[in-house]
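Illustration: Sec-C motif domain-containing protein.
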Amino acid sequence: MRSRYTAFALGDARHLADTWFPATRPDDLMLDAGTSWTRLEVLGAETDPDGRTGRVRFRAHWREAGTGETGVLVEDSRFVRRSGRWYYVRAL
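Result:
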């Protein structure tokens, strides 16, 4: 989750695509250059007993460059592990 947040903050669409589960990954990943991601708070994380799926609940804080508007995205995300790597699947 932290690497994906960092990718959003840096505008690294390649890393986001590489860490997104292929079956749910969008064909075109558009990042908003006017949005600055300013802080990540991981509220909780759990892995299922089989070690193949997990969930992360987080708050990501943002600021819009043009308006100075701020906000918080709260999400509960599902991940799967394949060949030792975690992939984002979707928000719950």
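Reading the tokens back as a structure: The domain at 2-91 is CATH 3.10.450.50 (Nuclear Transport Factor 2; Chain: A,).
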